[in-house]
Amino acid sequence: MIPVTEFRQFSEQQPAFRVLKPWWDVFTDYLSVAMLMIGVFGCTLQVMQDKIICLPKRVQPAQNHSSLSNVSQAVVNTTPLPPPKPSPTNPTTVEMKGLKTDLDLQQYSFINQMCYERALHWYAKYFPYLVLIHTLVFMLCSNFWFKFPGSSSKIEHFISILGKCFDSPWTTRALSEVSGEDSEEKDNSKNNMNRSNTAQSGAEGSLVNSQSLKSIPEKFVVDKATAGALDKKEGEQAKALFEKVKKFRLHVEEGDILYAMYVRQTVLKVIKFLIIIAYNSALVSKVQFTVDCNVDIQDMTGYKNFSCNHTMAHLFSKLSFCYLCFVSIYGLTCLYTLYWLFYRSLREYSFEYVRQETGIDDIPDVKNDFAFMLHMIDQYDPLYSKRFAVFLSEVSENKLKQLNLNNEWTPDKLRQKLQTNAHNRLELPLIMLSGLPDTVFEITELQSLKLEIIKNVMIPATVAQLENLQELSLHQCSVKIHSAALSFLKESLKVLSVKFDDIRELPPWMYGLRNLEELYLVGSLSHDISKNITLESLRDLKSLKILSIKSNVSKIPQAVVDVSSHLQKMCLHNDGTKLVMLNNLKKMTNLTELELVHCDLERIPHAVFSLLSLQELDLKENNLKSIEEIVSFQHLRKLTVLKLWYNSITYIPEHIKKLTSLERLSFSHNKIEVLPSHLFLCNKIRYLDLSYNDIRFIPPEIGVLQSLQYFSITCNKVESLPDELYFCKKLKTLKIGKNSLSVLSPKIGNLLFLSYLDVKGNHFEILPPELGDCRALKRAGLVVEDALFETLPSDVREQMKAE
C-alpha cells in the first residue's frame, strides 16, 4: 500500500504562500486529495489482487447435444456441484469434482493474462492510473505559479515584505494615529499567517470582496501607550521597509506575469476537466463484471473461448462514478475562478476604502502583478492589504522619518552644534538630514537657523516657540510652511538666504515676509524666469533694505526697481554673464551700496553716476580696461568706498584727484604700471590697496595721506620706498612683500601704530633695529623670513615675542 503522505509535496507549498490561496484553490486542493486517494486505492488493488479469472468454454457436437446438455451447462457454470450427503449405508464422504478441463495452474495463469490483455477494455484496465495521472496534473497546475522561477521570486519577496509590514509596530501606530482606531496586536499576525485553509474558512473567504474593507473587524487590541512607543531599532526597520516596498512596487508593476500564469493554469484545468468528463462519461460503461474472451491459443491450451470475471469491475465502476462527481465539482469551481478572473479588473487595485477608513489620503492605487497579488490577499484576509497600504503612503513615511529624526537629534545634541555666525547671531547649522527635527523648536535661544541640502522641509506652527529667531538660511532645500508658522515669520524674520539648484526650490511664501530686511538669493536663473516667475512679487517686501542676487541674469529685473524706494544695498553677482540694460539703476535713488561683480562690464555704467546717495561701489571681476569715466564720480559727494579690483585696468587717470571724499580705494589685481601723483590728492583715504599690479615706483606725494591706515603694494616691482611714506603716522597695516626692495628705512620707527608688517619675499639682508620703536608690532604681525627676523637685536625680538 502506497502511503498518501508520499504525494504531499505535489499538493503543498510553503506555508507562507497560503495567503495567496483563495477559497476556491483551497477547496480544489481538498478535492485533489480525494481524487488522489481514489487513484492510489485503485492502483493498490491492481497490484495486490487478481485482476481477472477465466474458465474455458467447451463446445459439443450437435448429435450429442441432448446427452451432453448437462455437461455443457457444467462447463458454463463454474460452480462445482455440492458433495453428496453421507448415508448410514455409506458413511464415507465422497469428494465431488467439477468438469475436468485437463488444464494445469500455469495454463490457467497464461489464459488469465492473455484475456486481461486482449479482451478487457483499456479503460477498465487503466482507470486507477488515469485517475492518478489526472490528479497529479491538476495539482501541478494549481501550484505551478508558486514554483516557476519567474513568478516564485516575486511571490516570495511579496510574502516576505507583507509579513514584515503586518508585524511592524509602525503599522499599528500609523493606523491608530490617523484613524483613531484601536491598535492591532502584532502577535496574532503569525496565527493568521499559519492558519489552515479549511473548507469552512474557504467558504467564508468567498464572501469577501477585495474592495469591501469597511466591514473589517478590529481583531487586535493593545494599549495605545504601547502602540505609540517606537524605539530606534523599530524605526530603522520600518524605514527599511518603506524602501523595500518602493523598489518592489517599481519592479512588480512593470509586468503581469503572475496574472497571466494564473489565468493560463486555470484555463488548462478547465480544458482538462472537459476532456475528463467527456471520455469518462462515454467509457464508464465499459467496466463490466463478466467478459467474453476469444483468443487463439487452442494449440497451447486446447480451448479458444473463455468466460472471464473482472474481479474489481464492480468496485471500479463505483469509484469511476465517484471520481466523475469530484471532477465535476472541481471543474465547476474552476469555471467560477475563470468568471472571477475575467469579470473583474484584477490588474488594477484601488485603496479607496482604505483611504476613507484610515484617513491616509495619499495611498496610491497599484496595477499589474502588484494589484493581482493584493486581490488574492483580499480573498484570504483584507486586513493584510489595509496594513500593507500604510507602507505605500508618503505621508506615513514622512511621519516615520520625522520620528526617527526626533529620536536621533535630541535638544542636547542640537545645542552642541550652536555657533556664532557672521552677523553675530547664535546659529544652528543642519546639513544633509532627511528632514527638520521637531526638537529644533525647543531651543528657544536660537537666533539663526541654517538648513542645507535637506529635502521636504516642513516648518510647523511650533516655530513660534523660537522667539529670538531673526535669520533663516535655506541652501538647496524644498520648504513648505504651516500657515501659523508663516504668520510668525512675517513678523519676526529679518534675514532670509536662499540657495537653490532648481527654481522650484524658491519658496513662494518668501514674498509675503513684510518685515524682511535682508534677502540673499543664490542660484541659476534666466532673465525670463527671474522676471515672470520668481522676482515679480518682490515689490511686496516693503521693509527690504539689502538685496543680494547671485545668478546669471542679463538685466536688472523690474521687481528690483520696484523696491528701490527703500532699498539701501544691492549686490548682483552675475557669474560671468554680461549685464546689459542698466538704465534701471537710475531709479534707485536711495541706494547707498552697489556691487556689480563678475558682470562682464567693459566700462563703468553711466547709470551709476545718477546715484547721488551712493556711498560704496564695488565693480569686482569685470572686464574694465579704461576708467576715464571716473571723473563723473565727483558728483557723488557721498562716495567713500571705490573698489575696482580684479579687472584689466592699465592706468589711473589724473581725474581721480577730484574724488576728494574717497576713504577706501582698491586697485588690486589689475595691470597698473604707473601711479599718478594726483592720486594722493585724495587726502581722506584711509585704505589704499595697490597689490598685484606692475608698479615700479611710489611717488613721494604719498606722504600727503595723513589719514592712511592701510597700505598694500604686495606683489609689484617696487625697488624702493619714499621716505615720505613714513610721514603717514596713523599707518597700522603695511604690506610690501613680494617686491624688489633691498633696504628698509630706519624711519619705519616713526610708525608708532604699526601692528602688521609684511616684508617677506624681498631682497633684505637686515632689518632695522628701529622696528623696536613700533610698540604695537608683535611677532605674529610681522611676516618675514625666520633668518631675517634673527638679524634684529635680541631685545627687539624679545619685545616682539612678548604678549
TrEMBL record:
Positions of transmembrane segments: 30-48, 126-146, 257-279, 321-342
Domain called LRRC8 pannexin-like TM region: residue spans: 1-338
Gene for this chain: Lrrc8c
Gene Ontology terms: biological process: cyclic-GMP-AMP transmembrane import across plasma membrane; fat cell differentiation; protein hexamerization
Domain of life: Eukaryota
InterPro entries: Leu-rich_rpt, Leu-rich_rpt_typical-subtyp, LRR_dom_sf, LRR_domain-containing, LRRC8_Pannexin-like
Intracellular or extracellular location(s): Cell membrane; Endoplasmic reticulum membrane
Family membership noted in the UniProt record: Belongs to the LRRC8 family.
Segments of this protein annotated with the region Disordered: 177-210
Any Pfam family the entry gives: LRR_8
Membrane topology: Multi-pass membrane protein
Keyword Phosphoprotein in annotation: yes
Keyword RNA-binding appears in the UniProt entry: no
PANTHER family the UniProt entry points to: PTHR48051, VOLUME-REGULATED ANION CHANNEL SUBUNIT LRRC8E (PTHR48051:SF58)
GO annotation, cellular component aspect: endoplasmic reticulum membrane; monoatomic ion channel complex; plasma membrane
SMART domains the record matches: LRR_TYP (SM00369)
Entry keyword set: Cell membrane, Disulfide bond, Endoplasmic reticulum, Ion channel, Ion transport, Leucine-rich repeat, Membrane, Phosphoprotein, Repeat, Transmembrane, Transmembrane helix, Transport
Complex formation: Heterohexamer; oligomerizes with other LRRC8 proteins (LRRC8A, LRRC8B, LRRC8D and/or LRRC8E) to form a heterohexamer. Homoheptamer; inactive, likely because it is not targeted to the plasma membrane in the absence of LRRC8A. In vivo, the subunit composition may depend primarily on expression levels, and heterooligomeric channels containing various proportions of the different LRRC8 proteins may coexist.
Bias type Polar residues, positions: 190-210
GO molecular function, one term: volume-sensitive anion channel activity
Name of protein: Volume-regulated anion channel subunit LRRC8C
